[in-house]
Amino acid sequence: MKMKSVLLGAACAFAFAPAAAFAERGADGHVNVIYWQAASILNPFLSGGTKDVESASMILEPLARYDSKGNLVPYLAEDIPTLANGGVSEDLTTITWKLKSGLLWSDGSPVTSADAVFTYQYCTHPEGGCAQLSKYEGVTNVEALDDLTIKVTFGAAQPNPYGPLVGGQSPILQKAQFENCLGTKASECTEQNFNPIGTGPFKVVEFKTNDVISLEANPNYRDPAKPRFATMTFKGGGDAEAAGRSVLETGEFDYAWNLQLAPSVIQGMVAAGKGKALSAFGTLVERIEMNLTDPSPNLPEGERATAMHPHPILSDIRVRQALSMAIDREVLVEIGYGQAGRPTCTIVPSPELYASKDQSCFTQDIEGAKALLEEAGWTVGADGVREKDGMKLKLLYQTSTNAVRQDFQALIKQWWSEIGVETELKNISASVFFGSDPGSPDTFPKFYADVEMYANNFDGTDPQSYLAGYTCDKAPSPANQWQGENINRFCDPAYDALVAELAQTGDMAKRGELAVKMAEMLSTESHTIVPLVDRGRVSAHANSLGGVILNTWDSELWNVSDWYRIK
Architecture of domain 281-536 in CATH? Predict the structure, then answer.
């Protein structure tokens, strides 16, 4: 049966490479980690920001996650359910997970299947907003068969049932802690969101939002010899260059995440001899997002950047296409990433099965872009800026504060000026831009700008949940506390139909075709998303820190329990 083929390789043996023998938990003392994008919340269901998902991943855990090779491996679950072991039903409508026995929350209470059921209810509550709602696409029920057994039921055959409660973006919450935080109350539960009780190797001692997290080893972690470190300082803020120097040059920190820096800068730091830079390609794509709704401050609050008001300029596909055509992606790669980047026209650059081969965006075409704008009725005014019906072709272009991104902004502003577009640049602290405050006007899901630039990716090697994030119902709005993956407010019934078809397709070749088609609908067909660079992830660790394995398929902190101090 072809629908079952996606499940055949799901189970795999899982073992970390042995680091060293340690007598007891916490024997290696203290470790310092720096993420130059500071964490703003420790609940990944209320933030789509990578820095929030990753910081929370040391505390909150899913049933399973992905290793550094993209293999699905058990964490809280005993094993990975498949057709072969009976964990996935023959008709592909259910998957049944078994929790490891004896699991405890960091407060000492037992972990049960009721916590998993509650997590499903929390994320899918009709009055709430969940940043990871696409993980539950097609799910009709999650139930506890007994204290350790969880059954997930789908409305139709689901060849890839590994979305719910899987990956760093979809961990399990403790019911006892969060049961009064459902629906509209979710964002009001500050204590729970800042100090979650978890099953991970560390627990929160103190959380200073957008600044620093103090952590200590979870005394109830399932492996009595882990984590190797007794305490951790997780520092946030600053910039990528300062973070890199703190590990590679000064030795103040042990690990620095996401060194979004020019290659020559990183090479100069490594030359100091105090640490190593690690890099690997995954699914991380730097892109420009086009707002299909009107973000004008002249609109009433609650109506800005919602489907009530289409964008007065960017609703025209010809304008979006012209903006993409004016960009020289090869130059962006050269100045921003070197060998750690490559041009891309798709938001799903890998695995190869799902990656579009379209390279039509690689060639900059200034004259072609001008012609498209002329065709759309935008004529050049006396000041060189195009006009139409008394409106200037002027755009607000925002991104997070980062040297490479500001270089990109400056170049793209210049290219857009060459085709008659006036661009206002804005950069926002990454802690705020990728933050979760529904009251802030500067978060990327709220999108109070015309275009914005950032990078994101998906966990694992299958883009089904990721692509499902762009259905009509996933648009952030006041009704869902501005949570949702579809920040462009893209809405196409044909796309939604493909999401449903992908969810029910097991033949791998066909799944690849559907995913490629969907990614192209978002990018090279509609130019709603303008991919720029397929970015290799670059991070750094001190020479004295062992056990680090860079993982581009899940949280970089996926095996933090195995980190140790090299004596």
Answer: Roll (3.10)
DSSP readout, 113-174? HHHHHHHHHHHT-TTS--TTGGGGTTEEEEEEEETTEEEEEESS--S----TTBSTTS-PPP
**C-alpha to C-alpha distance for 241 and 262, rounded to whole angstroms:** 10
Confidence of residue 23 (pLDDT cuts 50, 70, 90): low
What is the helix (H) or strand (E) element at residue 33, kind and residue range?
strand 30-35
pLDDT at 25: 96
3-state DSSP assignment of residue 293: strand
Number of separate helices (H) and strands (E) present in the chain: 14, 21
345: Cα within 13 Å, side-chain hemisphere: 21
DSSP code string of 169-182: TS-PPPHHHHTT--
**Encoded tokens for 128:** 């709430």
**227 cis-preceded (ω within 30 degrees of 0):** yes
CB atoms within 10 A of CB 410: 11
Going from the C-alpha of 463 to that of each of 15, 384, 498, 515, the distances in angstroms are 25, 42, 13, 7
Q: Which of 331, 312, 258 is nearest to 34 (CA)?
A: 258
The predicted structure's pLDDT at residue 272: 97
Task: Output the pLDDT for position 19.
Answer: 42
Q: Of the candidates 456, 457, 448, 412, which has an alpha carbon nearest to the alpha carbon of residue 428?
A: 448
Cα separation, 213 vs 230, in Å, equals 14
Identify the CA nearest to 551 among candidates 172, 269, 168. Answer: 168
- Output the pLDDT for position 157: 95
SS3 14: coil
Q: What is the pLDDT of residues 371-406, one digit of tens each?
A: 999 999 999 999 999 999 999 999 999 999 999 999
Specify the 3-state DSSP secondary structure of 559: coil
